[in-house]
Design goal:
With 120 residues, the protein is mainly α. The protein has a single domain, classed as Cytochrome Bc1 Complex, Chain D, domain 2. The chain is 43% helix and 0% strand. The longest helix is centred in the first third of the chain and has 20 residues. Bound molecules: protoporphyrin IX containing FE.
Length: 120
């Protein structure tokens, strides 16, 4: 039952909790992470793809995920160039088009095992 005494107790409990929350820096969950551990996770872009044209092809056909085929070829070249430039594989001002894109050498290019080399 909700008695006045209980109401006062609840109100003071809430006040105490609010005061505690505002003075505490964190909720004291988890534990601090050191720089070395952060560096391990600091990988925002993968670089596995063997051919630069695969990036163009993937974005052109599948991205953005919720609206595939909505970008113009020019936009797809620009996005591909952005990803390549962020990965320091091309310069920030390099022009990407049908001629220049296939010439970009991907770092992982020689690490693929070609099962049927004679068919290439
Ligand atoms: C124009 C904006 C976008 C670009 C340029 C883009 C680009 C890419 C690229 C290059 C990949 C392949 C990454 C890799 O395998 O290493 C990828 C994968 C993916 N993206 Fe996007 N993306 C865009 C927007 C989005 C959005 C808005 C979503 C979600 C709503 C999304 C969801 C995904 C998912 C789920 C994958 C993995 C697909 C798979 O492996 O089959 N992307 N995206």
């Amino acid at each position: 039952m909700f008695t006045p005494r209980r109401a006062i107790f609840s109100a003071s409990l809430l006040l105490a909790m609010a005061a505690g929350a505002s003075s505490a820096e964190t909720p004291h969950l988890g534990k601090p992470i050191d720089e070395a551990a952060i560096a391990y996770w600091d990988i925002s872009i993968k670089n596995f793809i063997g051919d630069s044209t695969t990036i163009f092809d993937f974005i052109r056909r599948a991205m953005p995920f919720q609206a595939p085929r909505s970008l113009s070829d020019n936009e797809v070249y620009a996005l591909t160039a952005y990803i390549l430039a962020e990965n320091k594989l091309i310069g920030a001002n390099d022009v990407m088009n049908a001629e220049t894109l296939p010439k970009v050498k991907m770092p992982n290019r020689d690490n693929f095992i070609i099962r049927f080399p004679d068919r290439i």
